Description:
This protein is α+β, with helices and mostly antiparallel strands. The protein has helices at 8-35, 40-48, 66-80, 82-101, 104-115, 233-269, 281-309, 315-340, 342-345, 352-362, 369-382; strands at residues 121-124, 140-143, 149-159, 166-172, 182-188, 194-199, 210-220, 271-272, 275-276. The strands form 3 sheets. The chain has a 4-stranded antiparallel β-sheet, with no helix packed on it. Helix 3 (66-80) runs antiparallel to helix 7, helix 6 runs antiparallel to helix 10 (352-362) and helix 8 runs antiparallel to helix 11. The protein is globular and about 80 Å long.
Amino acid sequence: MTSGIYDAENLMWQEKARNVAEKVVRPLARKYDELQQYPWEIKDALANEGLLSVWIPKEYGGAGGGVANLCIVVEELSRACPGVGVLFAVNALGSFPIIISGTEEQKRKYLPKIAAGETLMSFCLSEKEAGSDAGALRVRGIPQPDGTFKIYGEKKWTTNGSAANLFTVFAVTDPEKGSRGMTAFLVEKTDPGFSIAKVEDKMGIRCVPVVETRFDGVTVGPDRLLGGKAGLGFKHAMQTLDRARPGVAAQGVGCAQGAMEYALRYTTQRIQFGEPVSSKQMVQGMLADMAMQVEAARQLVLAAARSLDAGDPKGSKLAAMAKCFATDVAMKVSVDAVQLFGGYGFMKDYPIEKYMRDAKITQIYEGTNQVQRMVIARNMINESSNFAFLDAYIPKESQWKYEG
Ligand code: CAA
């Protein structure tokens, strides 16, 4: 599974994460799926192994492992339980805004506690009427004469919401300015006016709570304004999603890998027509297709993560490509794995249907795969001038069709 693509640090994180995944996560995956409860014992194991510090810079108490090592950990956890993969990765999503744009004071106050697993995070961007259209927020952050802001409104699909104690909240502070009038705030669970409005009942990733969060005049001082500046919220959200999307992609890879391993083992043990079903060419074709897709997705995720860690301007496009490709692979492979389990695959006694349920959300959250394709195509179109030299080979008579 390592495919020669990992360095020594990558392998160290992979082994650490795999240990927790096999000793703690896999044995408990079904229990928390059924209970639909946050698995505090799993979170403690993640914190004890130092896994919650992987993406936090060293100067703020973290391991400085960047996006690449974060993805490696997410893949390993998701292989055992894709729900635990996101339970873990959502802390990176919530804390990337602080890492990317926080003031020195905000970094020192919050990041060491996140790295230690004492502070858990949520990212509050989406609203009932602002899902894919993240620029259409209604939650307001109203500036007060004393320099504070009062936050009013509701957020939707806040992953980790009832477990988290710190929330990155995006609100409109200047409605005249559209997406340039958005600001990110750091809201603590204990802030008066903050509450959880509804806990969702979900198809998959059932161990991680997804909630509606309500802000009834939550008052925050300038110290809780991300980066100390208003009006940069939309950019902060986009830059965060660029870094976080490879994590969802890695969740997709782990989900697909985990489902494929079960399918491989099952088809070599299941006897029909007097022989293991894995001896049938049609089954072999499905196994081979799974393996190709999973490996291609893994390599794309790592390429995207390394590109972001290197500050490469292509990181945003690669992150969208990895998120879209790997999560489509998660869906396809998990559905095919259920197929290979036949009638048993449809039953909850078997572990495979959970992968299919857990896979679905990966194509939706942190930007639907339709949005990812939009991001990829926009980037490609922006790069089209690199191919101006090809104009010499395109007959001029066709130009009237696309000019202007
Ligand atoms: N980095 C930096 N800046 C960026 C950027 C990026 N990647 N993408 C856009 N911007 C900037 C643009 O340059 C532009 O700046 P100016 O105003 O200075 O010109 C500004 O942002 C507006 O950009 P667009 O015109 O491209 O914005 P848009 O309205 O067309 O939207 C979009 C673009 C890509 C569709 C965006 O709205 C989007 O990503 N939507 C999906 C939102 C999403 O992923 N939500 C998931 C939330 S998290 C979640 O799922 C829950 C959870 O807890 C797991």
